[in-house]
Amino acid sequence: MNTVDVVAMLAVLQYLVFGGLVGRARGTYGVKAPAITGSEPFERIYRAHINTLEQLVALLPAMYVAARYWPANYVAALGAVYLVGRVIYWRAYVNAPQTRGLGFMLSVFPVMTLVLGALVPALLGRGVI
To answer: How many CB atoms lie within 10 A of CB 60?
Structure first.
């Protein structure tokens, strides 16, 4: 099993599920497309989804490049921390945005670690493994 691929696809699936929750929230809170404002509960769900997209764009290439230099299980483990962080972030942002810090850190830390873990050996021109 390629753990990096599994975690990457779970991250994409998580994003799609969050998108489905945005769609459901449109109906619940009466926010008709293309509007993205008008209901604070909807806006929280929408922003949590968009922030997940912003993080996902950095996560996926960072995982695949880092996997060229580091053992796949290490890279996948950091990706799994990201997934948990996104759930914590989502729940916090939707319920009380001021409490989103832990989820944000559990999302950003793995991404930054993967970026640095890919960039340093790439700059040095050699693998770490």
So the answer is: 19
With contact defined as beta carbons under 8 Å apart, do 6 and 72 qualify? no
- How far from 55 is each of 26, 49, 68, 109, 121, CA to CA, in Å? 23, 10, 21, 11, 22
Q: How confident is the model at residue 126 (pLDDT cuts 50, 70, 90)?
A: confident
Q: Letter for the amino acid at 47?
A: R
pLDDT in tens, 83-105: 999 999 999 999 999 999 999 99
Residue the block writes with tokens 């109906």 = 27
> What six digits make up the tokens of 44?
């929280």
Query: Can you read off the two tokens belonging to residue 94?
Result: 């939707």
Q: What is the pTM of this model?
A: 0.94
